[in-house]
Amino acid sequence: MRKSYIEKAIPYLPLKIRSAFETMSIADKENITEIRLRVNRAVGVVQYGMEKYLGTNGGITTYPNIAVKVTLQDIEAVLKSVTEYSIHSFGKELQQGYITLEGGNRVGIAGTYQNETLKYVNAFNFRIAGEVRGASDDIFSQIKNFPKSILIAGKPSTGKTTILRDLCKKAGDIHRVSLIDERHEIAACYNGIPQNDIGMHTDVFEVGKAKGINLALRVMSPEIIVCDEIGLEDDITEIARSVNSGVKLIASIHAGSRDDVLANTEIKPIFNVFDYLVILREAGKIEEVIRLKQ
Fold first, then answer.
1. Ordered per-residue pLDDT tens for the chain, 294 residues
2. Would you list the domain boundaries of the chain?
3. Was domain 137-291 assigned CATH 3.40.50.300?
């Protein structure tokens, strides 16, 4: 499934880099999660959380001296391609540090900022999307009388967003769901249109979580609200209001264990609203599903 997303990212790359990827084996493409371009350095390719390099022949190598090198001209070309040759039209996205591309991939941008305006770019990180159908099957099978409020906890790169996206689709195929996609990673909207399958009855709000939850409650009458990485005080206030309105919540948080969640002072005021706590171990592997309410 991830291969198709890589194919959508390749056209944004300069010719010499694009050519190397076009000769890469299907097996190698399927396992790529990030493509990193840094000025005057080798093209980085991330697989299974480890960064290697793009060889000039399309293979993957651990030796940067035989890899494709990125020039300043390459960086300038990529900036033009990801902004569709209209940099000023993407001012807000450049300030945020990333752009969602057609097809669902997201490119992060590093560089020099002056007065919150991006002046120089020195690196790009193409984060390859990956809809993993069935990623939440184990969770869903253990939830009694769905819908329920579910908190997904895991450390970075444990697959929280992937599982949250699949849960959103499952829920949205049955119930009215409002997805608060502040970071544009779950629905991956391009010009307002979701690029990922998030369910037949899911409405997307690409705005901050607090405002998005408030809007959803007022205008969409959701049965379930889905959002990623909760924690700010304003988020907690609106989440408490949504639960008091009878709406279920599916959300994620950075934490490695139940104790880590309980130690999080920001989440503590609303921890009791969740019916289930899911702890992820690594790469989407579920360590345990804890039933918090009988």
1. 555 788 999 999 999 999 999 999 888 888 898 999 999 999 999 988 789 999 998 899 999 999 999 999 999 999 999 999 888 888 888 888 889 888 788 899 999 988 878 889 999 999 988 777 888 898 888 888 899 999 999 887 788 888 999 999 999 999 999 999 988 889 988 888 898 899 999 999 998 888 899 999 999 999 999 998 887 667 777 777 777 778 999 999 988 888 888 888 778 778 888 999 999 987 667 888 989 886
2. 2-127, 137-291
3. yes
CATH architecture assigned to 2-127? 2-Layer Sandwich (3.30)
Task: For residue 176, count CB atoms less than 10 angstroms from its CB and return exposed for 0-12, middle for 13-18, buried for 19 or more.
Answer: middle
Q: What's the whole-model pTM score?
A: 0.76
Burial 3-33 (b: 16+ CB within 10 A, else e): eebbebbbebbbeebeebbeebeeebbeebb
